[in-house]
Structure formats: C-alpha cells, structure tokens
C-alpha cells in the first residue's frame, strides 16, 4: 500500500465527481470525512449490505462509521492517520456503492 496522504479540497472535489451521493463534511474549518445515506427496501436488506460492509472493512483494515435506522444506512469515512480524507476513503466509497447497487 502506497503511503496515504490527505487529499486537498480540489483533489477531493474531483474524486467525488464519480461519487455523486457522497458529501464531504467540514469540521473545524477543514474536510473531516465523506458521508453517504443509503435507503434499502427492508431492514433485512440493510443488514445484508452492512454484513458486506463489515467484511470489506475487515479485509481493508478501514472501518466506516455506521448509522442504521431500519432501512436507512449512513456511512462516514475518514483516515485518522492523515487527519482527513485519503484515497483509501474514496476507494472504499466506490466499493461500497458497488455493493449497495447489487443489493438494490
Ligand atoms: C491500526 C489500524 O489499522 C488503523 O487504526 C485503521 C483502522 N481502521 C480505520 N478506519 C478508518 N475509517 N480510518 C482509519 O484511519 C483507520 N485506521
């Protein structure tokens, strides 16, 4: 794995062009994490998705913050080691969107 670096605002905005449902969240004046809300048909489908999220997180050693409310799942991604958002967050967001699409 290449060394992770914090993405600049421009780099992140470019990366999010292919992740239109993800938003960057500013905290203390700088980009802190990216987040996305998913809505599934049922509670069970939400948890089928979250099972896949958990397996990907375990494999990648990268763990989203997970909020679940029945059929709504909200995920947040940040890279603590760089104090912001890195390529790893963007890579994981793409993988999670692919998994969610397969669950729809
Ligand atoms: C030591 C361990 O691999 C690191 O702390 C990992 C764990 N999971 C992680 N998950 C996320 N989202 N960001 C991180 O920076 C991170 N770091």
TrEMBL record:
Query: Which reaction(s) does its UniProt entry say it catalyses?
Result: (4aS,6R)-4a-hydroxy-L-erythro-5,6,7,8-tetrahydrobiopterin = (6R)-L-erythro-6,7-dihydrobiopterin + H2O
- Superkingdom field: Eukaryota
Query: Which UniProt keywords are listed?
Result: Lyase
GO molecular-function terms, A-Z: 4-alpha-hydroxytetrahydrobiopterin dehydratase activity
The processes (GO biological process) annotated in the record are: tetrahydrobiopterin biosynthetic process
Entry's EC annotation:
4.2.1.96
> What top-tier enzyme class does this entry carry?
lyase
Q: List, alphabetically, the InterPro entries matched.
A: PCD_sf, Pterin_deHydtase
Which family does this protein fall into? Answer: Belongs to the pterin-4-alpha-carbinolamine dehydratase family.
Q: What is this protein called?
A: 4a-hydroxytetrahydrobiopterin dehydratase
Name the lineage: Eukaryota, Fungi, Dikarya, Ascomycota, Saccharomycotina
């Amino acid at each position: 794995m290449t060394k992770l670096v914090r993405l600049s605002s421009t780099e992140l905005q470019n990366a999010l062009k292919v992740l239109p449902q993800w938003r960057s969240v500013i905290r203390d004046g700088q980009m802190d994490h990216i987040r996305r809300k998913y809505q599934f048909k049922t509670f069970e489908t939400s948890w089928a998705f979250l099972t896949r999220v958990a397996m990907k997180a375990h494999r990648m050693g990268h763990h989203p913050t997970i909020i679940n409310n029945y059929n709504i799942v909200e995920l947040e991604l940040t890279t603590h080691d760089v104090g912001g958002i890195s390529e790893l967050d963007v890579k994981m967001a793409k993988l999670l969107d692919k998994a969610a699409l397969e669950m729809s």
